[in-house]
Amino acid sequence: MFDLSINVNGKLHQEFEPVILSNNRGFRFGDGLFETIRVADGKIRFLERHLSRLKSSMDLLKMDIPETFTDAFFQEKIGDLLVKNKIDRGGRVRITIYRNEGLTYEPITNQVSYLIEASPIDDNVYTLNETGLVVDLYNEFKKPLNRMSCIKSNNALVYVMAGVFKRENKLDDCILLNERFNITEAISSNLFAAKNGVLYTAPVAEGCLDGIMRNEVINIAKENRIAVYEVTMAMNVMLNSDEIFLTNAVRGINWVGTYRAKKYSNKMAGKLVELLNSRL
User: Does residue 245 contact residue 201 with C-beta atoms inside 8 Å?
Assistant: First the structure.
């Protein structure tokens, strides 16, 4: 595998070439955000929705949004990087935005820089995992409930600590709780529960990410007369559901097989993957 290229403010670098200075605010303070985007069959999926969420998050963080940050701009920059990195089927793109340099908490500017990465992945379309994930609750640190809980911020220590717990306990993923002890999401995915053919997922007000694939699954379900409700999800949902599955823009839908002594099926998850690929 050859070294991949990255795009930093319009200039190409090798992926392991040092490009970040010590006064970078994303590094120093987590003063940034990101979007992770799927490439399937050589096409950038859901780009408009990702960029809409990116700009909304930038506005929330009081970052200046350059006039150049149009859909066409990112389509061109990502497309050029996909060609450079020889990605013509399945791929993963990450756009990182960070506020420009400043050595203290108080920014000296709200202007931003961008970094775009693109790497290949094996699956050309969304596929359902063959073996169900093994998960458990992570409850050492809870997700706070405020407007910043719903954006993809570089300040991600709750997820990092959940990742440490996952590794230490040999799990495939962890379920996060909010400060009210309700289920909110997994480490990098939204969570859905299925019971008697009906879908349930936490509302954004419960602190989960307003996920691109989450919204896609909700839309697909409604179009196919599958009832779906955004409701507060207590911890006992894990034991009372027929299915639990996780969604994100890169992996699509992953079904959970085991939570402690509880076992799940994957009929609904499999149906939704088929509908998702048909829709695309």
Answer: no
Q: Name beta bridge partners: 211.
A: none
Our measurement of the distance from residue 48's CA atom to the centroid of its chain's CA atoms, rounded to an integer in Å, reads 15
Which residues constitute the domain of residue 225? 133-279
Query: Is 168 buried (19+), middle (13-18) or exposed (0-12) by CB count in 10 A?
Result: exposed
Residue 275: give its domain's CATH number.
Answer: 3.20.10.10
Same domain, 23 and 88: yes
pLDDT (tens digit per residue) in 116-133: 999 999 988 999 999 999
Q: What pLDDT, in 10s, does the model give residues 232-263?
A: 999 999 999 999 999 999 999 999 999 999 99
CA dihedral (154, 157, 160, 161) in degrees, to 10, reads: -170
Residue in the block written with tokens 């300040």? 155
pTM above 0.85, yes or no: yes
Tokens 């190409």 belong to residue: 12
Whether residues 115 and 137 fall in one domain: no
User: Per-residue pLDDT tens for 151-190?
Assistant: 999 999 999 999 999 999 999 999 999 999 999 999 999 9
Q: For residues 195 and 240, is the Cβ–Cβ distance under 8 A?
A: yes
